[in-house]
């Protein structure tokens, strides 16, 4: 769904227009429009498709009321409406279909509100007053100190090592334990599981952003992201597997910029192939969490990814997390793994299949469902370390802040430089 409507200047455009399919609705809207100081003659007979035709040759109003009653495919028609609406339009839809999924899809597309017919004068007045408030209220991102923002990428050395488990847990911990406004971006466009882990529908926001990066702004972020809790919003997708990802990555950079304005923390669940296709995604990352297992293949790919990060993202601190650690089931020892990657493992998350199953059954992140477990405790320690790492744009400021943190035992110099006392070994 393409949604260009956003907060903007009214610039001589009409304040209000309505396209309604029946006289009963018009009889309610016209006097209400007059009461609010708008021209009643701007309320005309016709539904959504009439609105598309009219606005294709005229400027769209600041507030648009449009009737979906005669639309056979409301979501597709809303997409057509988005193509002719100018920035600055707040759209309120009315219709006869009382369906929660349709309501959510319409809101995800950028619609401000959806009202059921027959229209209630009181409900309609409230909706129109709220639409007016969009123009009067300052943007939520005004005054945000972007230098205090921390962007963290989580990368798995291989599929199945638990990078998404770590990413969703960190995002949840930032939002709940640390009370920080947090954005979670799942860049596995076709097979991402971050929304699924929280028992949420992915929505359409990420695919819309990829298709139309120029339309990404603060209001788009507010409407496109799915709210997981009061402080956590997620942007993900479940694109058809017969639809290839066609993008130059500009949308990802723009999304990260908007996140820095709207949130204090960003967590990006970054599939490793993104390093090849869209390396610029890491340009503004403060910290990168590399997740692996104690396996030969994990060690090999950890070597390759760490080497790539040293050459292409040297500005970011790197934390190495080994997941699913079991003393009797690991292919290689911790010492051999560290020798291979030429640096320390910073955190080891114990293997706990029962805890993982418990989280999946509850539709919760691992950290939320398993606070009392050893694995949950390690995830909280990782979150605390990232949070304490500071807000600087480079590794030096991260290290300076870390020395003052409660987790002083973790030396961030070791996150940025190879170990000197280990002899490199093959994996």
Automatic annotation (TrEMBL):
Boundaries of every Response regulatory domain copy: 18-132
Matching SUPFAM superfamilies: CheY-like, P-loop containing nucleoside triphosphate hydrolases
The keyword Cell cycle is annotated on this UniProt entry: no
Source domain of life: Bacteria
Record's keyword terms, sorted: ATP-binding, Nucleotide-binding, Phosphoprotein
Modified residues (4-aspartylphosphate): 67
PANTHER family tied to this protein: SEPTUM SITE-DETERMINING PROTEIN MIND HOMOLOG, CHLOROPLASTIC, SEPTUM SITE-DETERMINING PROTEIN MIND HOMOLOG, CHLOROPLASTIC-RELATED
The protein, known as: Pilus assembly protein CpaE
């Amino acid at each position: 769904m393409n949604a260009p409507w956003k907060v903007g200047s009214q610039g001589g455009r009409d304040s209000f227009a309505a396209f309604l399919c029946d006289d009963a609705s018009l009889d309610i809207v016209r006097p209400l429009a007059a009461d609010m100081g708008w021209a009643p003659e701007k309320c005309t007979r016709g539904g959504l498709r009439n609105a598309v035709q009219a606005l294709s040759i005229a400027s769209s109003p600041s507030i648009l009321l449009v009737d979906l009653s005669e639309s056979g495919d409301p979501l597709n028609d809303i997409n057509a409406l988005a193509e002719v609406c100018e920035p600055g339009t707040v759209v309120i839809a009315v219709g006869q279909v009382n369906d929660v999924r349709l309501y959510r899809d319409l809101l995800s597309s950028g619609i401000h509100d959806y009202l059921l017919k027959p229209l209630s004068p009181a409900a309609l007045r409230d909706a129109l007053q709220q639409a007016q408030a969009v123009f009067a209220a300052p943007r939520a991102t005004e005054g945000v100190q972007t230098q205090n923002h921390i962007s963290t990428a989580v990368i798995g050395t291989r599929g199945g090592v638990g990078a998404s488990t770590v990413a969703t847990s960190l995002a949840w911990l930032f939002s709940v334990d640390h009370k920080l406004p947090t954005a979670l971006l799942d860049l596995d466009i076709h097979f991402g599981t971050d929304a699924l882990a929280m028992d949420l529908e992915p929505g359409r926001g990420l695919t819309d952003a990829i298709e139309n990066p120029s339309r990404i702004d603060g209001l788009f972020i507010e409407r496109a992201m799915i709210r997981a809790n009061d402080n956590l919003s997620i942007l993900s997708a479940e694109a058809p597997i017969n639809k290839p990802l066609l993008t130059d990555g500009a949308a990802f950079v723009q999304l990260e910029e908007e996140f820095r304005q709207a949130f204090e923390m960003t967590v990006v669940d970054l599939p490793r192939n993104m390093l090849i296709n869209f390396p610029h995604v890491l340009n503004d990352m403060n910290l990168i969490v590399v997740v692996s297992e104690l396996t030969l293949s994990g060690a090999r790919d950890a070597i390759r990814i760490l080497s790539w990060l040293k050459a292409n993202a040297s500005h970011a601190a790197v934390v190495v997390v080994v997941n699913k650690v079991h003393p009797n089931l690991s292919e290689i020892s911790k010492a051999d793994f560290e020798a291979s990657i030429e640096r320390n493992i910073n955190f080891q998350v114990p293997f706990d299949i029962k805890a993982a199953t418990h989280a999946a059954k509850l539709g919760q992140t691992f950290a939320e469902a398993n606070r009392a477990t050893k694995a949950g405790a390690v995830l909280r320690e990782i979150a605390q370390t990232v949070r304490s790492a500071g807000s600087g744009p480079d590794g030096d400021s991260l290290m300076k802040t870390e020395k003052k943190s409660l987790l002083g035992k973790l030396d961030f110099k070791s996150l940025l430089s190879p170990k000197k006392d280990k002899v490199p070994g093959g994996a």
